Amino acid sequence: MTDIELVVFDCDGVLVDTEPIAVRATVAVGAELGWPLSADEVVERFVGRSTASIGEQVAERLGAQAVVPFQRRFEELHREAVERELTVVPGIREALEELRLPSCVASSGSHDKMRHTLGRTGLYDWFDGRIFSATEVRHGKPAPDLFLHAAQRMGVRPEACVVVEDSQYGVRGARAAGMRVLGYAGGVTPAEWLEAEGALVFTDMRELPALLEKLGGAGQAGTAGTAGYAAQAEALLEQYEGVGFEEVHQRVLPLLPPAPAQVLDLGAGTGRDAAALAGRGYRVTAAEPVAELRELGRRRHAGVDIEWVAGALPQLPGITGPFDLIMGTAVWMHLSPAERARAFERVLELLAPGGTLVLTVRHGPVPAGRRMFEVPDAELLGQARAAGLRLVHRDERSDLHGRADVRWSELGFVRD
């Protein structure tokens, strides 16, 4: 069985508990406009379908002139209820925290709707840059178009995707795309409807990580942030080593402690920074979880005194401090908010009194097949302040590889 490389989440009813709201709003609008609908009829006809598909059914029943009033009134009632009562699907936060696979969203809803619902529940930043809507394809669910579009954008083969859906139309579309499907039956859609379409049904989102592992989520026990790096290791070697340590870190060089000092390079990649620091007389530990990058780094910098370790954030198992300097370049954005909190605590355990912490964080669109999150400077500043670290450097620079939509934050702290 093909290993899982991507988890594709539906939005409504899987991430945010909007389906009961949508069903009630649809029943109310139908009654106002002369189409009596029961809740069960709404679930059977509409749940999981795109706005365009629902509009076609409204036009067939009430006439084309009713489509816009129907949609406007639905959006009004839906938005009001979302503001009052929307919550996440029970257990989804716990499932996402345990997830160690790349993920994205593929929803029948519009981007505006998802910005509202995911934003309202605090999940938007989790998936920002990896959210796909039926408005981007010609045919919505139950056609396979949206799922194939999401897989293509994420750089993953359809057979390596697992879709988490709560509607019969979503399950049908995912199966038509050649993807495996987990059907969440803890919402409004009966389990037998999902099973009939070929989904493996479950009712508690907390079960999701274990189900993914059983389905072939070999990466589930690994590090999600490293997704895509092993396969591209040779190309990344040229990219990383194509710019020099001094060019990348020229503004933070004054923060380096006197050599010889103990240095930890987090997410060391192919060892460009580790080798440069070792050449300056530092005793360097290079932590890089991707074996292919470690091996390329060892070969590229053979003869340089670097201690290579496989430690991955947030736990960094097997690494002991203290370190006088900890550098994290292009690594923090691979961590989810909860992982970042744990990683910061772990880094503090390893940082010596008087030690310096330098973080360089990427901002910009997420490349296909990668797992990245937007990391606000304010978050790091708040964590450092709460931990008693003193800010000694804060700057922003453009991308040295010429990507106009990518920028970098540089933050330096000292533990007094």
What can be said about this structure in brief?
By secondary structure, the protein is α/β, with parallel strands linked by helices.
Note the total helix count: 17
Largest sheet: 7 strands, mixed
Euclidean distance between termini CA atoms = 53 Å
Describe the strand arrangement of the main beta sheet, using strand numbers.
9-8-7-10-11-13-12
- Helical proportion, percent range: 25-40%
Strand residues, percent: 15-25%
The topology string of helices and strands comes to EHHHHHEHHEHEHEHEHHHEHEHEEHEHEE
Mean pLDDT: 87
Features:
elongated; seven-stranded mixed β-sheet; alpha/beta
SSE map:
Elements: E1 6-9, H1 19-33, H2 39-45, H3 51-62, H4 67-85, H5 92-98, E2 103-107, H6 111-120, H7 124-127, E3 131-133, H8 145-154, E4 161-165, H9 168-176, E5 180-184, H10 191-196, E6 200-202, H11 208-215, H12 233-241, H13 245-249, E7 262-266, H14 272-279, E8 283-287, H15 291-300, E9 306-309, E10 323-329, H16 337-350, E11 351-363, H17 377-386, E12 389-398, E13 407-415
Structure description:
It is a single chain. The protein is α/β, with parallel strands linked by helices and 416 residues long. It contains 17 helices and 13 strands. The protein has helices at 19-33, 39-45, 51-62, 67-85, 92-98, 111-120, 124-127, 145-154, 168-176, 191-196, 208-215, 233-241, 245-249, 272-279, 291-300, 337-350, 377-386, and strands at 6-9, 103-107, 131-133, 161-165, 180-184, 200-202, 262-266, 283-287, 306-309, 323-329, 351-363, 389-398, 407-415. It has a seven-stranded mixed sheet with strand order 9-8-7-10-11-13-12, sandwiched between helices. Strand 8, helix 15 (291-300) and strand 9 (306-309) form a beta-alpha-beta unit. The longest helix is centred in the N-terminal third of the chain and has 19 residues, at 67-85. The protein starts with 5 loop residues before the first strand and ends with a strand. The relative contact order is 0.11. Residues 218-222 have low confidence and may be disordered.
